[in-house]
Model the fold of this input.
Amino acid sequence: MLEDYSSKLSPQTKRAKKSLLSGEKKENLPSDYMVPIFSGRQVHVSGIADMEEERIKEAAAYIAQRNLLAREEGVTAAKQSTVSKQSTSMLRQEEGFEKSRKVAIREKAEHLSLKKTLEETEAYHKKLNEDSLLHAPEFVIKPRSHTVWEKENVKLHCSVAGWPEPRLTWYKNQVPIDVHANPGKYIIESRYGVHTLEINACDFEDTAQYRASAMNVKGELSAYASVVVKRYKGEFDETRFHAGASTLPLSFAVTPYGYASKFEIHFDDKFDVSFGREGETMSLGCRVVITPEIKHFQPEIQWYRNGAPVSPSKWVQTHWSGDRATLTFSHLNKEDEGLYTIHVRMGEYYEQYSAYVFVRDADAEIEGAPASPLDVVSLDANKDYIIISWKQPAVDGGSPILGYFIDKCEVGTDSWSQCNDTPVKFARFPVTGLIEGRSYIFRVRAVNKTGIGLPSRVSEPVAALDPAEKARLKSRPSAPWTGQIIVTEEEPTEGIVPGPPTDLSVIEATQSYVVLSWKPPRQRGHEGILYFVEKCDAGTENWQQVNMELPVKSPRFALFDLTEGKSYRFRVRCSNSAGVGEPSEATEVTMVEDKLDIPKPPSNIIPSRNTDTSVVVTWEESKDAKELVGYYIESSIVGSGKWEPCNNNPVKGTRFTCHGLTTGQSYIFRVRAVNAAGLSEYSQDSEAIEVKAAIVAPSPPYDITCLESFRDSMVLGWKQPDKTGGAEITGYYVNYREVIDGVPGRWREANIKAVSDEAYKISNLKENMVYQFQVAAMNIAGLGAPSAVSASFKCEEWTIAVPGPPHSLKYSEVRKTSLVLQWKPPIHSGRTPVTGYFTDMKEASAKEDQWRGLNEAALKNTYLRVQGLKEGVSYVFRVRAVNQAGVGKPSDLAGPVVAETRPGTKEVVVNVDDDGVISLNFECDQMAPNSEFTWSKDYVPTEESPRLEVESKGNKTKMTFKDLGMEDLGIYSCDVTDTDGIASSYLIDEEELKRLLALSQEHKFPTVPVKSELAVEILEKGQVRFWMQAEKLSGNAKVNYIFNDKEIFEGPKYKMHIDRNTGIIEMFMEKLQDEDEGTYTFQVQDGRATGHSTLVLIGDVYKKLQKEAEFQRQECIRKQGPHFAEYLSWEVTGECNVLLKCKVANIKKETHIVWYKDEREISVDEKHDFKDGICTLLITEFSKKDAGIYEVILKDDRGKDKSRLKLVDEAFKELMAEVCKTIALSATDLKIQSTVEGIRLYSFVTYYVDDLKVNWSHNGTAIKYTDRVKSGVTGEQIWLQINEPTPNDKGKYVMELFDGKTGHQKTVDLSGQAYDEAFDEFQRLKQAAIVEKNRARVVGGLPDVVTIQEGKALNLTCIVWGDPTPEVSWLKNEKLMASDEHCNLRFEAGKTAYFTISGVRTSDSGKYGLVVKNKYGSETSDFTVSVFIPEEEARKVSEERPKGNKKAK
Done:
């Protein structure tokens, strides 16, 4: 697994790079030190390798003796010794087994060969003169650097000359390579003077610097080569990390070209000092920029609060989006207050950024109640109680805190219960009455005389268990012991009585409780034991049991209900099933009081300047303070008497930065200490201090460039420091030095007196000499650090014809779409004067080929307002000068600058006072202590202009024009020094000049501004109201009322009124008479301002007004009795009926309403009750007969009123058009119906009137009606009948209903399937009609029943019809009859059938039927014949009569 470095800060200095070389010892390094990856393999070398040591000793012997032969003999001896050692080593390794015969022969042969070679070499060198042959090593071929892909092999070759033959050793990062330490990894060969180092299966660890070191008696020489191992882009060798790189962090940085030697970490969009309130949400974040960017590798992000890592919880969450780190608080509490640090680590490099977060108290539910406590934690937990501690709040609500209430809640429930009946002052409390094994959370509330404050944040859950039991449960969970001792028959009845507890002591004592602690007895048997605590007053032996009802299970106990200030002793007994043991030794006498004293107040409170919104406060810690929790700091504006907390979470240490202060205000501070016993008294107030930014030396200037060069002098230019240190830059000092053959000399001062501009000419230089320069800025705090060394510039005469680059570029008035760019002319103007300037711009991230010019024609001014910028985009600018010879080199870049309007940006405002004085005003809320306002016209300072007067006070400035005129046209700008470019400008052109002069004239000679000119209106009773409204009137405003050039006054005819709050001026007249025609004027005077408004009422205008007034007066009279609030009108209902309606008013129960039409009363079925004030008359199916004049009359004893409505002529046509429109809108969609004659298209309407015109069209052409195609209306159905349809009748049919104004169309498509189905249905109906028409049928003539006397003749005649002529047959009792003499059956002329019986008999009675039939169908007509005998009938009658008489009796 990889080691997680996210929870600890790196102990190294930022970007510190160490390497573990030979001679360094690992134990001297910190335990968590990580060796930088690029420093080579992590090999620890305690000394020089054995072989290397032998070679060095051998070389030293050569130099000392200068005897070649002796040296060679030494070499021979060394080689023989080496061979001997190797042979001995092999013998030892092969000891225990017998060598084969082949191995022994080979070794003997090699030994003889080596001996022979040595003898030949010795003989050869005896003949040589060693002094003439010795020379130092020299590389004939040096090793070459290689870049290879991972897992490839690489070979380094070199060839060395020298005598004696040099010995060559390979090193990796200055560590000798040992081929035996990595078998198969390295292969070192030396053949025929060519030396080779082969590295197999390269990986990233092989990226290093390799050295070949050649040595002989004449010296040592080294050659270097680098090997870089690359990996394919996008790959990640996970096996490497899991296999052996366990010490590398997850952010181990590997580039596609090997190890990254350096990472740059920057923070953008950083979070600042933040202020929140309890219960709110807050998010801290910043963008992390890391260069170079490595794919698949992310930095390690860790947040800290006050130096402790922040872990995600329900209160705080962390997020990393790939380039932005965020810390979010879901519910702020005072526990969250502190210094927050984001620590970003990438490989060996890290950066961090910090800012403070302040959390204010939430608003109290009860005004004056104290704030909530904080940091509620469990100090100790066991079976019987849990000790809770907390920190006191900084705010007591205005009265001292009387104590605290502790609440508990069992985990898994939401039921809170109070643990103490009386408030406790000590910030620790043992909570008892807990259920063993249950977990609880706690909260604390503070109380003062006003009430109880809000509860604290709840604590973490804590279980009521002994620590040993908790450990046992983690390893093997089990149920907690209940404290019950159960004795069964199988258990022994005798047990061991426990002994006395030991080491009893009072571990904590306050005025509210005492906590005892002891050790269990050594003698207690194998069962659980209980403890009973006893107490007695000091000086007595009257022991009382404290916990009779609640035995103690754990060796700690908290006692309550003790008398404050009284002394006690305590002892403990043990108990089990065998009995109660002896008591322990009693404690020392303990007094019930707080043992921890409230700390003394801090002293020597010293505030010091920090920023324009913060002050650093230091103090001396409280003396003899015990268990100190921290300090609370408060601030107060001098003279206000109101103190505000600077922190809500106690801070440790004796220094704190108080943020959120008001710039320019003077504050005093005080501090008090806090521990568990309470808060100390306040310290003495500090000295007052004004909130201003501290002044420090400025940062270095930058971008040093050569503006012009002469034969013996040079002109330098540079840019002002980014940070002025809180004060104005008072000057610059320039140093220079010569550079000869690339080697710089010593620095020399170029100026003794400070230079005020960002350019300086350095004289007395040497021609054609190369120089480098440094510049340092100075303010009242001192001289700042010098700039970076400039590039090298050669001192020579410039002969170029074009001008040099402009310099001192700066930008100001930066807004989201514009800014102002300024510069100074070039020092070197070329052969001819500068005639203008060209400005270029590009986005900061754009390439060099994307510069674009901002002006086509050369600028004469040395400034330009750049427009059309994109908000949020960063830009850079440059300027080029031009003369007759051409365009010169571009200046240094100005920027980058982001186009944005910063919060709080203000603009120059023009103002014209009451005396007509015109001024430009500017206000700045972000001024530094030494900031000043600088006014310019066309960006040239206006300090000595006789036409202007400047006045500045505090953060406001005003520039006043003495006599604004044409010569004052231009751009007026105001810059604020010692700020981050705060500036604004105002353009006065000819149009603005005219506006300002007119406004000035108006202020000199003011007029009363009129909101509404004089007007007249008729009031409800015919009164006339003249009125006008001014914008505003003071209490001294006066009005004169003029009629026809004569002033009129209030009296019986005129009533006048002025409302100075609203500016309304009124005059009332009861009625207008002929003599009131004329001109009315209201003249207003309010201080110096005057105004008037005139109204002309002459001729037709006056007559119309007079008539309107008379009408309103009559209306008032009319409305004294019952009257119409709305006169009679009509509307067409959705059912196409016409509803006449009117609205009545001032109605009572006796009021009658009568309707008339054409002066004839209309009878109305229902009497109206006037409840809704609406009277209606409904006319159904409205038509021409309903035209006429309708009238409705209201009357009672107070009078009457009438309303007439003419529904004739045009009015009737308008109503009828609306009726037709409603009818047309009620039409249903066209439908298709097949009939016997053909196809019918139809639609239904609510009802039909003749005024509704119906037109039909087929495929866009009006239909011409014929006998075959007809149109008509039947009831509410409008139809089009197409008889005997043909394929030509297919298509789209449109029915248009024209209401007199608008046509309303309904369409149907009679084609395709719709036509086919309709045509088939028509054919079927037609065929059915033919069948029905021609089928055989009995037309008439036959009765249903025939009753006839026997012997009589029966003659029946029946008419039948059918085409073709039907066949006729007769049935009797469902049997076919045949004509005979008795019954004659005849059918004549194809339509008449005869049925004749000459003399009927009784046998002729029965059911008869006539059946007619042809090819289209058949029909049967039945009749019944009943034959009776007269004698039988008489007899039946006579028989029935006696029965009837008898029954009557």
